[in-house]
Design a protein that fits this description.
This protein is of the alpha+beta class. It contains ten helices and 14 strands. Helix 1 crosses helix 4, helix 2 packs across helix 3 and helix 6 packs across helix 9. About 5% of the residues have low confidence. The structure holds biotin. Biotin (BTN) binds next to helix 5, strand 5, strand 8 and strand 9.
C-alpha cells in the first residue's frame, strides 16, 4: 500500500483526502495515518492538513528505497520481485545467493551502498552510499551459454535508453533541485551525448558513466544456463573517483544536474524489458543492432585492439548480430573482435 499511496500522491500533485485513501485501499483512517507515519520515517515529506488531506513534496533527487522504486516501476515482470538493501557486500553476490535459493526470473537486487562492489577483470567497484545506482538483474533465459555474452550488450542498450529517457523530460520539468534551481535550467537537452563504448561501458563526452558485470551459472550438465546475473553500476552523483579512474570517469549529475535514482532505475528496467524481448525473438542482436550501432561511440572511428596475441589498429564499423565488434584493417580485410579476449581503445584515449 505504501508504494501505491506514493504513486497516487505523486500523480495528483495536490492534496488527497484521508477519506479517499481509506475507500481506495479499503482500510481504516488509522491504517492510512500509520502508513503516512511510516512513509515520513522512510524520508518522504508529507504534509497533512485538516479538511484537505495529504500532500507529497518531492525534490529532484527524491527518496531512494524500496517504496520509491516500487512506486515508479513501469516494467511488467522485470523487478516485480525487488530486493533492496541499504548496504550489502555486492548486489551480484546477493543475486547469486537468491538465485541458488530459487528467486524468480526478473528479480532485481538494489543497494544504496556496497562494501565489496566488483568490477570486470577482478577489479573493485567503489560503491559509496547516497550517490550512485548499483543493481543486479537475475535472469533465467532458455538460451545456450555461448549466447550469454550478448545480454551484456542488451543491458548496455537498456541503460543508454534509460538514461536518455530520464534526462529528456527534464527540459520541461519544473521540479526544483536541492539548491532550489529548476532542474530544467541545468539538464541540458543534450542527453544525446550518451553513447556506448563496446561492448558495455556507457560513456558521456568520452568518459565512463556506467559499467556492467555479467556472471553466469551453468546447469550441472554444463549445456544450458541455470541463471545469470547482470550487475550494473551507474555513476549518478558528483564524487571523487579512485585515482586510476579519475581521468576517464564521470557522473550524470556533473553534466545534467540532479537525477532521481529510482526514476532512472525504473526507466532502465522498462527499457531492458523491451530490448530483451527483441533479443529473445531471434536469440541474437539482429533487431537491436541498428540502435546499438547508432550509440556506438567508436563507429567509423580509428580504434586500437589490445589483443594479448598482438595489438593492431583499424576502424570500427559496428557490431555483428552476435555482438562482436567489426573492425576494418588498413588492408581492407575485416576482423570480428570477441569481447572476452581483448579490449578496444580509441587511438587517442579511452573511447
Ligand atoms: C565494470 O568493471 O565496468 C563493471 C562494474 C559493475 C559494477 C556493478 S555495481 C552493481 C553490481 N554489483 C557488483 O558488485 N558489481 C556490479
Amino acid at each position: 500500500m505504501k508504494a501505491d499511496i506514493i504513486t497516487l500522491l505523486r500523480q495528483r500533485g495536490t492534496y488527497v483526502s484521508g477519506q479517499e485513501l481509506c475507500e481506495r485501499y479499503g482500510v481504516s483512517r488509522t491504517a492510512v495515518w500509520k502508513a503516512m507515519e511510516q512513509l515520513k520515517k522512510d524520508g518522504y515529506q508529507i504534509e497533512a492538513v485538516k479538511n484537505r488531506g495529504y500532500l507529497l513534496r518531492e525534490d529532484a533527487r527524491g527518496v531512494f528505497g524500496r517504496t520509491e522504486i516500487e512506486s515508479r516501476r513501469k516494467s511488467k515482470w522485470v523487478g516485480q520481485t525487488l530486493v533492496f538493501y541499504d548496504q550489502t557486500d555486492s548486489t551480484n553476490m546477493q543475486a547469486k545467493r537468491l538465485a541458488e535459493e530459487g528467486a524468480p526470473d526478473g528479480t532485481v537486487v538494489v543497494a544504496d551502498c556496497q562494501s565489496a562492489g566488483r568490477g570486470r577483470r577482478g577489479r573493485a567497484w567503489t560503491s559509496p552510499p547516497g550517490t550512485n545506482l548499483y543493481f543486479t538483474l537475475l535472469l533465467r533465459p532458455r538460451i545456450t551459454p555461448d549466447k550469454a555474452s550478448m545480454l551484456t550488450l542488451v543491458m548496455a542498450l537498456a541503460v543508454a535508453k534509460g538514461i536518455h529517457k530520464t534526462l529528456q523530460p527534464c527540459v520541461q520539468c519544473q521540479a526544483k533541485d536541492t539548491a532550489g534551481k529548476p532542474a530544467s535550467e541545468k539538464h541540458g537537452a543534450d542527453a544525446t551525448a550518451v553513447g556506448i563504448k563496446w561492448p558495455n561501458d556507457i560513456v558521456i563526452d568520452g568518459r565512463k558513466v556506467c559499467g556492467i558485470l555479467t556472471e553466469l551459472s551453468l546447469s550441472v550438465e554444463q549445456d544450458c544456463i541455470d541463471y545469470l546475473v547482470i550487475g550494473t553500476g551507474i555513476n549518478v552523483a558528483r564524487q571523487s573517483f579512485p585515482e586510476e579512474l579519475a581521468g576517464h570517469a564521470i557522473s550524470l549529475e556533473e553534466i545534467y544536474g540532479s537525477v532521481n535514482r529510482s526514476e532512472l532505475l525504473a526507466n532502465v528496467l522498462e527499457a531492458f524489458e523491451e530490448v530483451y524481448g527483441q533479443f529473445l525473438r531471434t536469440q541474437s542482436l539482429e533487431y537491436l543492432r541498428p540502435a546499438y550501432d547508432a550509440l556506438l561511440v567508436s563507429k567509423d572511428k580509428s580504434v586500437r585492439v589490445l589483443d594479448p596475441k598482438g595489438e593492431y589498429d583499424g576502424i570500427a564499423r559496428g557490431i555483428q548480430n552476435t555482438g562482436e565488434l567489426i573492425v576494418e584493417l588498413p588492408d581492407g580485410s575485416v576482423k570480428n573482435v570477441y569481447a572476452g579476449e581483448v579490449s578496444v581503445r580509441g587511438i587517442y584515449g579511452y573511447v
